[in-house]
Write a structure and sequence with these properties.
Layout (H helix, E strand, L loop, with lengths): L6 E2 L22 H19 L62 E10 L3 H10 L9 H5 L3 E6 L23 H7 L3 E3 L9 H15 L2 E3 L1 E2 L2 H4 L3 E5 L2 E9 L15 E2 L6 H11 L4 E7 L10 H13 L3 E5 L7 E4 L2 E4 L4 E3 L10 E10 L4 E9 L6 E2 L2 H14 L3 E3 L5 E3 L1
Parallel strand pairs: 1-7, 2-3, 2-14, 3-4, 4-5, 8-10, 10-11, 11-13
Antiparallel strand pairs: 2-15, 6-9, 7-8, 12-13, 15-16, 16-17, 18-19
């Protein structure tokens, strides 16, 4: 398999800079009146351009409510949708606070790298039914701009990508079409985590197909491989002189045969903390920033369990700078440990919909990190239902931030989505 070390990625296409508005004093206009006129135009402009568990499936409405589209989402360059959302299915825009981590400056400027993370993603089951009808690029309709602007966007791909394999004996089994990958890549996703409890739902053959399909599409992957060495190997990416090592580890593995071994493929497990800790320590010697994507915890629990907190602290003690978790299918809180951030669970991003409202709430986690290993976190609140994650309106976003503040460990989220230590 082609080596995944020391890849240098090209910067993403940046949004064109806003044109400057000339200020003219004409005729009988006084200078003061002209200034007031310009300020009024500017206010109007920014008002209109502010950005606002293993699931039991239900026949939920395909249209989320209380949501808004992002500003000018980038057009898709991947597989095109065969059906466009109807005007009735497009949420009306409302004003929300713009992300402080997203600007019109070149990506990574000022000695920073910008990373974005999303939660659990599948393109199977009820989600596949929707995509077959509306097109595989449909899920990114309202969030593509948030995924494509950062330097690197990372997701947890909780499904094999295959048309073959042997279905495993477990309660929930997923399999997604290879047709889903080009739109995922076109939407801006650069790296996916495969260390989870669904990537081998169709056995070793399904996992091997997934690895091959991701390689063919140019999407980096962590957390699984043809043997132990490959499964625990990080993806290395670099931007603006900052070298980032990204790992994936899972503490939710259905059976022992799923674990990667010296001579057989599988996932990077973390029931035994020593292999992940050793891998992090090794990467720390050459990387400026170490990121861990972890799959762990109890489904639908608002709070991390002791295994999560213990592992997160061990990872940071070993040299990790940022940890982002998933699997509970609901949001969990944040913690800062020794100056490093832990996001215990981002919940679902593109997943089947059930009747539990907490599983509809998620965020796009934006991290602006520097070479001195510090990260500034900002959250974009998202309502995700029926395969269409959509930014929340301001009121609902603030309610989510308040709830996250209540369930976080020594951390808070302000009304603008900025995460800070209490």
């Amino acid at each position: 398999m082609e080596s995944r070390q020391d890849r240098h990625r090209k910067p993403k296409k940046e949004r064109a800079a806003l044109k400057k508005m000339p200020l003219k004093v004409m005729g009988g206009l006084t200078l003061a009146a002209a200034v007031c006129f310009a300020i009024g135009i500017g206010a109007s402009y920014w008002s209109s351009h502010s950005r606002t568990t293993e699931e039991a499936e239900s026949a939920a409405s395909p249209v989320p409510t209380g949501t808004t589209q992002p500003v000018k989402p980038a057009s898709s360059s991947g597989a095109k949708s065969t059906a466009k959302p109807s005007p009735e299915s497009t949420p009306k825009a409302v004003t929300v606070s713009p992300s402080p981590n997203v600007s019109d400056k070149p990506a990574g400027s000022g000695g920073q790298v910008r990373l974005s993370f999303v939660g659990d993603v599948i393109m199977a089951s009820k989600v596949e039914d929707i995509l077959t009808q509306k097109g595989y690029d449909y899920p990114y309709t309202n969030v593509k701009d948030y995924l494509s602007k950062p330097d690197f966007t990372i997701a947890n791909l909780e499904t094999p990508i295959t048309t073959r394999g042997t279905v495993q004996n477990k309660e929930y089994v997923y399999r997604s079409s290879p047709l889903a990958l080009p739109p995922l890549k076109a939407a801006g996703v650069d790296i996916v985590n495969l260390a989870n409890n669904h990537v081998m739902d169709y056995g070793p053959e399904g996992l091997q197909d997934t690895l091959n399909a991701l390689d063919q599409e140019g999407i980096e992957h962590v957390g699984a491989g043809k043997n132990t060495e490959e499964a625990y190997k990080p993806v290395i990416v670099e931007k603006n002189g900052i070298k980032i090592a990204v790992f994936g580890f899972s503490r939710v593995v259905p059976e022992a045969s799923w674990k990667a071994g010296p001579n057989h493929l599988g996932v990077a497990e973390t029931y035994n903390y020593k292999p992940p800790v050793e891998a992090i320590q090794k990467a720390k010697a050459s990387a400026d920033l170490v990121v861990v994507v972890a799959h762990w915890g109890v489904e639908r629990s608002d709070h991390p369990d002791k295994n999560q907190t213990d592992l997160a602290h061990r990872y940071i003690d070993a040299g990790a700078d940022l940890i982002v978790g998933g699997h509970p299918h609901v949001m969990q809180g944040f913690e800062q440990y020794k100056g490093k951030w832990i996001a215990y669970s981002l919940g679902n991003f593109i997943f089947t919909t059930n009747d539990n409202p907490k599983t509809w709430e998620t965020v796009i986690l934006e991290a602006a990190c520097t070479k001195d290993k510090s990260c500034n976190l900002h959250l974009v609140p998202i309502l995700t239902k029926s395969a269409l994650p959509t930014p929340m309106n301001q009121e609902d976003g603030i309610k989510l931030f308040q709830r996250l503040s209540q369930i976080s460990i020594g951390a808070r989220v302000d009304d603008n989505g900025q995460v800070s230590k209490k």
